[in-house]
Amino acid sequence: MVTSSKKKGTFVKQAAILASAGLLVRFLGFVYRLPLTNMLGDEGNGIYGMGYYIYTFLLILSSAGLPAAISKLVSERLALRQYRNAHRVFQTALIISTTLGMLFAILMALTARQTAALVKSADSYYAILTLCPTLVIVAIMSVYRGYFQGMNTMVPTAVSQIVEQIFNAFFSVYLAYVFLQVRIPEGQTKNIALGAAGGTMGTGIGAAAGLVVVLLSYISIRPYLLRRSQICKQQYEESKKELTRSLLRTAWPIIVGTAVFSMTNLIDIGMVMRILTASGYSESEATVLYGQLSGKYVTLTTLPVAISSSIATAVLPSIAASNRLGEKKQIKRKMNLTMRISMIISVPAAVGIGVLGPQIIAMLFPDAPDGGILLTIGSVSIIFLALCQTATGILQGIGHIKVPVVGAVLGAIMKVILNALLIPIPSLNVIGAVLSTTGCYLVASIFNVYMLSKLTHVRFDFNRILWKPCIGSLIMGLGAFGIYKGFYLLLPNNTVCTLTAIVLAIFIYGIVMLLIRGIQEEDLESIPMGRKLIRLCKKAHML
After folding, report:
1. Which of 100, 120, 203, 541 has the most C-beta neighbours closer than 10 Å?
2. Does residue 263 surpass a pLDDT of 90?
3. Percent helix, strand and coil across the chain, each to the nearest 5
């Protein structure tokens, strides 16, 4: 009983640490994207987004699947006290990831100009070029993060993410400002293409700072890890050849599944730009619309999903260890808890962003206020993406790593079909890409959740996972809209009224969820300052 309680506490604590870091990182990301967007405008955002999404796709192919694979393999070996094998997983992964990172960085640099031409944005060449070194840095850093996560220690990953984003935020804004002042032959005072490239340079500097953090963390515990590896007695020591096969066998479905979703961004770059220009828009006008899609809609809707993504990352080693030890009850409990926490956060975020979409855009981007309609129409995608990512993390943890690949492919097919049908409609244009994104995540999430339930024979408690958060969120959404309109009559200031509506909406949602028992003690334990909230709720007789 004590062991079970301890495991539960560890799992919840590590998930909370990574989720808290994810929230802070996303918040810092917002902080720097505000001045960046206001400096670059929608056109600069479009150029920045094109370079960044191409980099992200190559990053996924080179190393993004390795942290999850390393985490899974390390946690399984530690559960069986195979400490030497666990450390050899790390050493082997470091060689593989560094090699792949360097190869893809060289490939990206050599094909930068051709890639920019392919996506119909010659100005994105500089942004693509400046991101090449970042591929190598992140490839190395991802191995260390995966190793720490496999040891069920999320603190180094969390701290490195925060440090990375702080450096990224400062240098992205500073370098964008510096490069915007560069004069170009036509005599313009601002160079949007170079400004966007300056923004992407901050990504590499931030990654380097994050790498330093995980390196120092590893160096501090390395003597203990080596000593433990030497003392432990294990019957069989895996060779690097065997571990390479295991890593690649585990990583490739994760890489493919993630790459397919990343391809949806590349699909948007190619299809949105090509269809819009074919429909009569100039390249500059198409880039502006794409900038609203990538710099506002994608940035804002992925904020709450960062939490579900963090939860999925944290749950993977925990479920993998329970699966290896045959702890079926623990797996079932963790699955329901993880899904529940993900939806408790994602559903109200989707409703809130949908209800106050235009107001949020106008508040955050006063110099570039267009694009609020994209949030109003596409905010529901938050729910489906969160469901998809959470189910993917669980499936990977229990060893069914190929299932999310199928879901991702089905979603990508839906994305392409809907893009082709909807974007050419003049009244929709870029809204068609938002609707197709929602369709993509809807298909993938339904498939992943269905397969997860079928493979594990676990019946999800959808009453607590989905329906109660929906009830609480609908009441919250009506409250938020009413509060905004009421306050705006008294004080016609969008920023003040939007912030007031958001803060009061959070309280409304929390109270409604407690009253309908949509949030219980176990759920509160999984969030930052959860124990304090439990004590307050008990004093108010709400738990």
Report:
1. 203
2. no
3. 85, 0, 15
Res. 9: pLDDT tops 50: no
Whole-angstrom distance, CA of residue 493 vs CA of residue 485:
11
Q: What is the DSSP letter of 491?
A: S
φ/ψ region of 476 (left if φ > 0, alpha if ψ in -120 to 50, else beta) reads alpha
Instruction: List Cβ neighbours of 498 (8 Å cut-off, separation of 6 or more).
Output: 356, 359, 360, 362, 363, 484
User: Which has the closest alpha carbon to 225: 143, 151, 322?
Assistant: 151
Q: Please give the average per-residue pLDDT across 437-466, as a whole number.
A: 90
- Closest by CA to 207, choosing from 279, 105, 121, is 105
Q: What is the rounded CA–CA span in Å between residue 329 and residue 66?
A: 28
* Contact (Cβ atoms closer than 8 angstroms) between residue 176 and residue 39: yes
The answer to whether 257 and 397 are in contact (CB under 8 A) is no
Crossing angle of helices 328-355 and 357-364, rounded to 10°: 80
Residues 6+ positions from 291 with CB-CB distance below 8 Å: 41, 42, 43, 44, 45, 46, 47, 48, 49
Q: 310 and 44 in contact (C-beta within 8 Å)?
A: no
- Has residue 3 got a pLDDT over 50? no
Of 266, 268, 263, 348, nearest to 307 by C-alpha is 348
What three-state secondary structure class fits 401? coil
Please state the pTM of the whole predicted model: 0.74
pLDDT value at residue 6: 45
Q: CA 317, CA 150: separation in Å to the nearest integer?
A: 6
Mean pLDDT computed over 147-170: 87
Number of H helices, E strands in the chain: 22, 0
Residue 243: pLDDT band (50, 70, 90) is confident
Do 247 and 93 meet the contact criterion of CB atoms below 8 Å apart? yes
Kindly calculate the radius of gyration of the chain based on its CA atoms and give it in whole angstroms: 23
Reported as type and span, the H/E element at residue 431 is helix 431-456
Cβ(196)–Cβ(39) below 8 Å: no
pLDDT tier at 495, thresholds 50, 70, 90? very high
